[in-house]
Amino acid sequence: MSAESSPGFTPTGTIASSADRRRVVFATVIGTTVEWYDFFIYATAVGLVFGQLFFKDLGANSALVGFATVGVSFLFRPLGAFLAGHFGDKFGRKAVLMWTLILMGAATALIGVLPDANAIGIAAPILLVLLRILQGISAGGEWGGAVLMAVEHAPKAKRGIFGAAPQIGVPLGLLIASGVMAIMALVAPGDQFLSWGWRIPFLLSVVLIVVGYYVRRRVEESPVFTELAERKEAASMPIVQLFRKHLLLVVIAALVFAGNNAVGYMTTGGYIQGYATNPEGALKLERGPVLWAVAGSAVTWLLSTLVAGWISDRIGRRTTYIVGWVLQLVGVFTLFPLVNTGQVGLLFAALAILTIGLGFTDGPQAALYTELVPASIRFSGVSVSYAIGAIAGGAFAPTIATAIVQATGSTQAVTWYLAGMTVIGLIATLLLRDRSGIPLGPDHEAEQSVSPIYGLSRA
Asked: Nearest Cα to 250, choosing from 391, 95, 423, 443?
C-alpha cells in the first residue's frame, strides 16, 4: 500500500488525522454552502421580485433583463478565477478562500439594503448590477480553492467522496435560499414580500459569513501547497504557464462543466421559479409551493451528488460522468412536459428527476478537475476552467430560455437547447482519459503534465 493510498496520509505522504480531514470536509461544505446561498438568493429574487422593483420601467422585457443580470456576473468569474488562481498558486488556498467568503457576504448584504427604482431611479439597477459583479468575482475564486482543499487533503481512494463535499454546497445553498425565501413568502405575503420580505434572506448572509469565516480559519493549508512552498516551487506566473501548455485542456474541461451548468441554472438561475410563478404566464402558480418544490429538489441533488462522488472512487470519474450525462438527458426531456401540467407535485417530480442527473455530473467534478492539472498551476487550471465553463453554460441559460419562450411561445426549443448542452458535455468527457488516482504531489509533476486528452501524445 502506498503512502498516498493509506488512510492516514495526505497526497504528499504526510500524516493526517481523521479529525483534520473531518474539519476540512466540514469547512468546505460550510464555506461553499454560504457562498452559493448568497449567489443563488440573487437568482431566486430575480425570478420573483427584481423585475418588478428594479427593472419595471422596461415593461415586458423586465424579466429578460433581470435574468441577464444573473448572467453578467458570470462574465466576471474569470477575473475572480484569474486573481484567485494566481494568488492561490503563489500564496496558498486558505487565504484566498477567506477573502472570497468576505467579498461575497458583503455584496449580498448590501443588496439587502439597496433602495429600489422607486426610491433612487436608474441608480438602483446600476448599483444592483455592480454588486452582482462582485458576487461573480467572488464565485470565480471560491470554487477552485474549496475543491483543492478537499481533494488535496483526501487519501487517493477517497478523492471522489471528499471532492463531493464542496460540490454539495450548490444544492445546499439552493435548498437554504429557496427555503428562506419560501418562509418569507409566508411571513410577508403579497405586497409585504415585495416591500421588505425579500430583503431578509440577503441580510441573513451576514450571520452565515461569520460562521463560515470562523470554520475556515481553523483549517490547515493544503498539504500539496505546503510542500510546494517549502520547496519554493510555486509557479511565478501560473496563468501564463497554464495557457501556454494546457490551453486545449482548459477548453475541454470548461465544456464538461458547461454541459452541467446550463441545465442546472434552470433552477439555480431562477428560471423555473420565474416561469412557474409569472402572473402573466401560462402556469400562474403560487410563489410558496414552487419554492418548496425547488427546495425539495435540492435534496435529491445533494444526495445524488454524494452518491456520484462515492461511485467515482469505484468506477472512475469518466464512467460516472457518462452515466450522469445519460441521466441528465432523461431529466431534460421530462422537465417541461411535467412542469407545464401546472401541478406543483409534478413540477417537483420533474426537478427531482433532473437533479439526479445533475448530481451525477456534479459529484465527480472536483476530483476530475484536480487530477487533470499539474500541482504548481492547479489552482489556476481548476478555477479558470470552471469559470469559462460557467460562462459557456449557465451564464445566460435563463436569459436564453426566456428569449426562446418569448420568440416561439413554447418550451420545446428550450428542451433542445438543454439537450444540446448535455451532449456537448458528454463529448467533452469522452475526449478525456480517466486519471483517477494519479499522484497529486509536486514529486509527480512530470506525470501530471502529460496530456489527458485522447489523440495527444502521452509522452
From this structure: 391
> By the 8 A CB rule, do 417 and 285 touch?
no
Q: 248 near 453, Cβ under 8 Å?
A: yes
If you average pLDDT over residues 320-338, what whole number do you get?
97
Q: Phi and psi of 87, rounded to 5°?
A: -75, -30
- Identify whether the C-beta of residue 110 lies closer than 8 Å to the C-beta of residue 42: no
Quickly count helices (H) and strands (E) in the chain: 23, 0
Please state, for a pLDDT cut of 70, what percent of the chain lies above it.
Answer: 92
Return the DSSP state at 459: -
CA distance 126 to 131: 9
SS3 state of residue 266? coil
Beta pairing partners, 15: 9
CA 281 remoteness from chain centre: 29
Report residue 5's pLDDT band, with 50, 70 and 90 as the boundaries: very low
**pLDDT score of 222 more than 80:** no
Query: What value does the CA radius of gyration of the chain take, rounded to a whole number of Å?
Result: 21
DSSP 278-324: -TTSS----HHHHHHHHHHHHHHHHHHHHHHHHHHHHH-HHHHHHHH
Q: Note the Cα 22 to chain centre separation in Å.
A: 22
Q: How many CA atoms lie within 13 A of 299 on its CB side?
A: 8
- Cβ contact 359:331 at 8 Å: no
Quote the mean pLDDT of the chain: 86
pLDDT band (50, 70, 90) for residue 231: low
Residue 183: other Cβ atoms inside 10 A? 16
- Please tell me the distance from the alpha carbon of residue 412 to that of residue 61, in angstroms, as a whole number: 21
CA-to-CA dists, residue 125 to 66, 89, 440, angstroms: 9, 36, 45
- 349-382 residue pLDDT tens: 999 999 999 999 999 999 999 999 998 888 889 9
- pTM (predicted TM-score): 0.82
And the C-alpha cell for 216? 475556515
User: Which residues, listed in sequence order, are joined to residue 432 by a DSSP beta bridge?
Assistant: 453
Residues of the chain above pLDDT 90, percent: 38
Q: What ranges make up the beta strands (E) of 74-233?
A: none
- Give the H/E segment covering residue 413: helix 412-430
**CA 448, CA 425: separation in Å to the nearest integer?**
23
Phi and psi at residue 435, in whole multiples of 5°? Answer: -115, 25
C-alpha cell at 74: 458570470
- Counting Cα atoms < 13 Å in the Cβ hemisphere of 81 gives 27
Residues in a beta bridge with 453: 432
Single-letter amino acid code for the residue at 65: V
N- to C-terminal Cα distance for the chain? 27
* Number of residues that make up the chain: 459
